[in-house]
């Protein structure tokens, strides 16, 4: 038998492999996070601010940390007494701000992964998952409500006014005191208004009034229009 005949015989003797239809994996059922009417809007809001919250968290923590490092270098190297004193005031203030950010992260920044991993095979598991979502949403709303509250603006103004007063009355550094008051307050306000508020926006949303029906009501002296909202 020739070599080509042997190859042809071996080729014909091999049965083709047909993939089994039974090996296909069915997609998992839809999660209650997206199918439950009371949970889906909350989940969508938290997901919308998850990555912006992380950017806000690491961005402000990094910025305030850089301020601490920069002011420490100035305090250690400058020969200007005013710059050194200003750095000594800025270092603990910025360090306190950095710790405040690091120790109180936005609820949606790092709280959604645990919810995603929670099983929902049984009714008890679904209830636990729903309760966890509601708790994270509530915490996020409370955090954002405080950040946008008048109290937080007052706290920022008070802190920066106190630091400015320390520079002015303690060391007679009027220019640096004014810069501290204005610059520190602006920084505080920017930190407030750059924080995402999707959860708070959802929680405080009011349904728009829409006119659904309009009736003509006959009266003895004419007609009246009655609307249903």
Give an account of the 3D structure:
69% of the residues lie in helices and 6% in strands. By secondary structure, it is mostly helical. It has one domain (32-197). A two-stranded antiparallel sheet has the order 1-2. Strand 1 and strand 2 (222-228) form a beta hairpin. Helix 3 (40-77) runs antiparallel to helix 4 and helix 8 (150-171) runs antiparallel to helix 9 (174-193). The longest helix is centred in the N-terminal third of the chain and has 38 residues, at 40-77. The model is unreliable at 1-27 and 208-212 (pLDDT under 50).
Give a nutshell description of this structure.
By secondary structure, the chain is mainly α. It has one domain (32-197). It is 69% helix and 6% strand.
Give the topology, please.
Layout: H1 3-12, H2 32-35, H3 40-77, H4 81-103, H5 107-110, H6 112-117, H7 123-147, H8 150-171, H9 174-193, H10 198-203, E1 213-219, E2 222-228
Antiparallel strand pairs: 1-2
Helix pairs in contact: 3-4, 8-9
């Amino acid at each position: 038998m020739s070599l080509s005949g042997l190859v042809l015989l071996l080729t014909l003797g091999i049965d083709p492999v047909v993939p089994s239809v039974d090996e296909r994996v069915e997609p998992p059922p839809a999660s209650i996070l997206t199918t439950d009417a009371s949970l889906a809007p909350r989940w969508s809001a938290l997901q919308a601010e998850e990555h912006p919250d992380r950017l806000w968290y690491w961005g402000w923590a990094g910025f305030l940390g850089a301020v601490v490092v920069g002011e420490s270098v100035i305090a250690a190297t400058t020969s200007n007494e005013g710059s050194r004193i200003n750095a000594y005031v800025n270092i603990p203030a910025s360090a306190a701000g950095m710790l405040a950010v690091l120790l109180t992260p936005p609820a949606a920044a790092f709280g959604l992964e645990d919810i995603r991993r929670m099983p929902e095979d049984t009714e008890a598991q679904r209830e636990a998952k729903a309760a966890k979502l509601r708790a994270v949403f509530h915490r996020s709303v409370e955090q954002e409500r405080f950040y946008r509250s008048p109290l937080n603006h007052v706290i920022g103004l008070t802190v920066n006014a106190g630091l400015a007063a320390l520079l002015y009355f303690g060391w007679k550094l009027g220019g640096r005191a004014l810069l501290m008051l204005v610059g520190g307050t602006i920084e505080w306000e920017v930190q407030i208004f750059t924080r995402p508020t999707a959860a708070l926006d959802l929680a405080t949303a009011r349904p728009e009034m829409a006119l659904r029906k309009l009736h003509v009501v006959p009266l003895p002296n004419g007609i009246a229009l009655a609307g249903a909202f």
